[in-house]
Every structure is written in C-alpha cells, then in structure tokens.
Amino acid sequence: LLNAGKTFEEEKLFLQATLGTQKLIVRNDLIKQQSDFKPHNEQPSGINKIILLIVSLLIMVVVYFVSKYIKKK
Fold first, then answer.
1. Contact predicate 65/72, CB 8 Å
2. Residue 51 CA to chain centroid, in angstroms?
3. Do residues 1 and 7 make contact, with C-beta atoms less than 8 angstroms apart?
4. What is the DSSP letter of 3?
5. pLDDT score at 25
6. Cα angle vertex 67, ends 64, 69, to 5°?
7. DSSP secondary-structure letter at 4?
8. Which residues of the chain have pLDDT under 70?
9. Residue spans of alpha helices (H) in the chain
10. Please, how many CA atoms are within 13 Å of residue 15, restricted to the half-sphere of its CB?
11. Distance between CA atoms of residues 18 and 71, nearest Å
12. Count of CB atoms situated within 10 Å of the CB of 11
C-alpha cells in the first residue's frame, strides 16, 4: 500500500490481468525434466577403456624417456 499506492486486491487483479494464470506442471513431466539435467555417469565401452589404458601407458613412457634425456644434458 505504501510503495504502489494499491490495495492487495487491486495488486492481485493487476497481476492476474498482466501475467495471467500459469498452468501447473504435471508431476511426471517435472520428474522427466529434472532427470534430463542430472549428471549422467556413462562409462566408456570395453574397447575404449583398453584404448585409454594404452594411450596412457604410451604417454608415461614418452615422459619417462624425455625426462631421462633432459637429465643427461
């Protein structure tokens, strides 16, 4: 009443006319929307795990030999 100069009923009618009424979300739709935003723990397939392991080992070997070469200098 002090800020807008309107009563509660006038403000309520103004908001209803301006914004309208919003439709409620059905519970199943809400759960589906929430599950879409959750982090998914997707593991790589078996062949991808083997590829990652081989690449990691190759990188470790390269780092070992480069550090050994740099130490000799």
1. no
2. 27
3. yes
4. T
5. 61
6. 105
7. T
8. 1-4, 22-26, 30, 36, 38, 40
9. 8-19, 27-37, 46-72
10. 10
11. 74
12. 14
Residue with tokens 């991808």: 48
Please check whether residue 28 is in contact with residue 34, taking contact to mean a CB–CB distance below 8 angstroms. no
Structure tokens at 21: 């009424």
Q: Residue 32: exposed, middle, or buried by beta-carbon count in 10 A (0-12, 13-18, 19+)?
A: exposed
Cα separation of 5 and 8, whole Å?
10
Cβ-proximal residues to 7 (8 Å cutoff; 6+ apart), any chain:
1
Model's pTM, two decimal places? 0.43
Cα 13 from chain centre: 38
Query: Could you give the C-alpha distances from 36 to 39, 40, 41, 56, in angstroms and in order?
Result: 8, 9, 13, 32
Instruction: Round to whole Å and give the CA distance between 39 and 42.
Output: 9
